[in-house]
What does this fold into?
Amino acid sequence: MPELPEVQTVVNHIRPTCVGKRLKRIQPVWGKVLHNFKEADVNLILDRPKVVDVYRRAKFIIISFKNHIIAIHLRMTGKLNVTDEHFRSKHITAVLEFENDYSIYFEDVRKFGRIYLYDDLKVIDSKHGPEPLGKNFTNQLFKKMVSQKRRNIKALLLDQTFISGLGNIYVDESLWKSGIHPSSTSNLVPENKIFSLHSNIRLTLREAINNNGTTIIDFNVNGESGRYTNYLCVYGKAGEPCLKCNDRIEKLKIAGRGTYVCNKCQMKYVEKYS
DNA sequence: AGGCGTTCCTGGGGGC
DNA sequence: TGCCCCCAGGAACGCC
It folds into this structure.
């Protein structure tokens, strides 16, 4: 399930092949993959379809041109494979062909992934919160944001309009590292724990990026697995001893998601009488 | 406002 | 072995 580090890993991987090259064609192999445009629009709208840059915003891979951007969202099971050979797979949903004979094969078993065409980042920015690794994302800002909401902390961190890029894995990891139970209510978490959470979110994301992300089931880049899987502390560890206190890690359902938690060392901050 | 259920999808696992 | 059912989950959407 690609989250910020996995998307960043994909960007780092495809960037050198694409920047400066002209996009020849986007071929939708599966009908619904192009979310807000048609194959022909690429020729009509993209006047000089030379790739200016490839970068990440939230969980989107942004391929930018002079006056437009193409945004790719991998959702659950999307993968990009870059190759100058024919790529065979049952689950190709789209192919982006470049002038240098390289193509990006969008492979997506569950078909939730989509490709978008926009003039610029405005639409995406309007629906997304700050980048957790961004310069402006200070612990004071985060404290203010979290305390202004009275909301389940896990649901809040998963909400892309609140903060960008986090998903189920890195939320569980960050909350565990910070000793905050995912059932907590955001504005009741003490300041020192919010600061700790801020720092652990950034630390976890950076370490994951340095290890090319996490491979649970589906994520890889051109078949290469992310190594962060080896560094996970709670995610997927139901029944195993907590690395901090030796209590058993439990799997619960919180905010509609499978959630891994140590009930002993993750403090639950909730209203006493409710 | 925020929580919750539903939808989109398919493969894989459990139960029998 | 086989078949059915349920589950996984990011994000959008509708409902209360």
